[in-house]
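$ ./design --mode recover --in tokens.txt
reading tokens...
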């Protein structure tokens, strides 16, 4: 360390100049080897490489002579301890500026020791005010371990820290981190205690408008709502046991400003999924049958609880009971309800006018007889090939329509024979015959209908033609024409028809 003595300044080749313009001699090669920032200054294209002085100026901190001397001591031989007179905030800023991670760790230890008092209990007034400030420095200058310790310590003792001005002056994003950390450590065992701490914070902050307290009030109100919602959601687990009764319902443990908002939140959040659990937990505290020894010792709610707590809890129980009665049709089928005493179950059914028919809560879908009938081959073809389906009138012969539709024959008189579907009429040269869905027409020769087998037409113009069955039937897909004979329908009137060319039929 003789290199730092003033007598050895003749061996130095550079000087560090802090804010007060005091020259502190140093050596280029040591600064270059121990610090990357100094190496860039002295070995690069910076102006410090051509001058004999390095100006030490801080950005948002003061680069005092003591801070610069501490930096030089660390670079030359390391520093396990710091002077009590050095400003830790300024030193931390300088160490971060010049990338001296080792010096930052040394400074973090002194912050933990001197400002946080090693997070001791009970908290003192000094560390209660300095821990939020230390948390801000740790966040700003990249000390994650110290930052997390400060954050968790403030979350566990929020009633002591959140009322401090140093906490209220933190940036909004740090307030949000504090609130999130409270929610991370929240569980069924400490939820009510956290509500008590938040209520204490609200009482500790100024009641009227105060500029410094408004940020703390805002984050306290936000956290209160979140913790209250958590406690209401897990209320059946929180009150299941004697700790809740002994700690918050007896004597001075009762806190109206905390418990009544919690009761209202639980009632507002009742649903078919949690009503049975909440009712069982509340009933065990308020209405369960006490043993004879408990009665002799005066361990009944009416005698042992705080009078205000007994009254408020009674109203809370009635509201949950009314909800269970109103939704008895569902709740009586839950497993939790079946675990209640028989007399209590009967009382709930009686108050709900509930009639249990013994049937299952949900019935199976009825099976219709029509769905059990075997489907015919025609229906199966229709379902699988809807484009090939035919009408019911053509069910007698599906193949004949396929064979008659494309067929046609022409004979010597110029007549035309074709199978065509019409609207159930059969017209001849001298008469007409109307069948169920088809017609056959002929002039000189036999023509077969689409569906009825055969319809013969013979004779000179106007002679009657007889169908094979006396009736020409079709499905709307075929029509048969002869050359010179008409077809006579059963029971129908015969009338001459005019050919398509507009001329009279032969023989007239």
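writing sequence...
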């Amino acid at each position: 360390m003789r290199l730092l003595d003033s007598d050895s300044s003749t061996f130095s080749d550079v000087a560090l100049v802090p804010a007060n313009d005091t020259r502190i001699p140093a050596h280029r090669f040591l600064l270059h080897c121990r610090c990357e920032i100094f190496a860039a200054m002295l070995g690069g294209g910076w102006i410090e490489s051509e001058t004999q002085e390095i100006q030490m100026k801080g950005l948002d901190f003061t680069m005092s002579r003591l801070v610069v001397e501490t930096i030089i001591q660390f670079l030359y031989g390391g520093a396990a301890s710091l002077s009590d007179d050095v400003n830790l905030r300024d030193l931390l800023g300088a160490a971060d500026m010049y990338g001296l991670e080792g010096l930052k760790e040394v400074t973090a230890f002194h912050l933990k020791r001197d400002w946080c008092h090693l997070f001791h209990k009970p908290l003192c007034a000094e560390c209660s005010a300095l821990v939020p400030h230390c948390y801000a420095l740790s966040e700003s200058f990249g000390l994650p371990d110290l930052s997390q310790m400060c954050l968790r310590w403030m979350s566990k003792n929020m009633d002591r820290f959140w009322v401090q001005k140093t906490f209220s002056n933190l940036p909004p994003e740090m307030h949000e981190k504090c609130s999130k950390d409270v929610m991370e450590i929240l569980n069924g065992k400490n939820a009510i205690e956290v509500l008590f701490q938040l209520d204490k914070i609200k009482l500790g902050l100024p009641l009227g408008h105060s500029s410094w307290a408004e940020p703390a009030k805002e984050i306290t109100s936000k956290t209160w709502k979140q913790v209250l919602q958590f406690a209401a959601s897990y209320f059946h687990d929180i009150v299941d046991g004697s700790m809740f009764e002994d700690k918050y319902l007896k004597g001075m443990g009762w806190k109206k400003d905390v418990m009544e908002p919690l009761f209202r939140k639980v009632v507002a959040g009742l649903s078919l999924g949690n009503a049975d659990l909440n009712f069982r937990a509340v009933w065990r505290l308020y209405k369960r049958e006490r043993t004879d020894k408990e009665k002799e010792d005066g361990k009944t709610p009416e005698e042992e609880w705080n009078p205000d707590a007994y009254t408020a809890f009674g109203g809370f129980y009635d509201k949950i009971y009314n909800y269970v009665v109103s939704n008895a049709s569902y709740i009586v089928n839950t497993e939790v309800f079946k675990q209640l005493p028989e007399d209590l179950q009967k009382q709930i059914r009686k108050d709900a006018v509930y009639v249990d028919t013994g049937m299952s809560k949900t019935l199976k879908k009825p099976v219709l007889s029509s769905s059990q009938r075997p489907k015919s081959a025609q229906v199966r073809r229709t379902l699988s090939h809807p484009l090939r389906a035919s009408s019911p009138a053509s069910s007698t012969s599906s193949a004949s329509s396929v064979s008659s539709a494309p067929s046609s024959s022409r004979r010597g008189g110029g007549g035309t024979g074709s199978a065509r579907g019409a609207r159930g009429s059969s017209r001849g040269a001298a008469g007409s015959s109307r069948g169920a869905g088809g017609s056959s027409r002929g002039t000189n020769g036999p023509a077969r209908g689409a569906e009825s087998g055969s319809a013969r037409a013979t004779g000179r113009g106007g002679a009657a033609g007889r169908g094979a069955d006396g009736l020409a039937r079709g499905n709307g897909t075929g029509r048969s024409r002869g050359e010179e004979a008409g077809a006579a329908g059963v029971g129908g009137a015969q009338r001459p028809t005019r050919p398509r060319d507009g001329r009279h039929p032969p023989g007239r």
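exit 0
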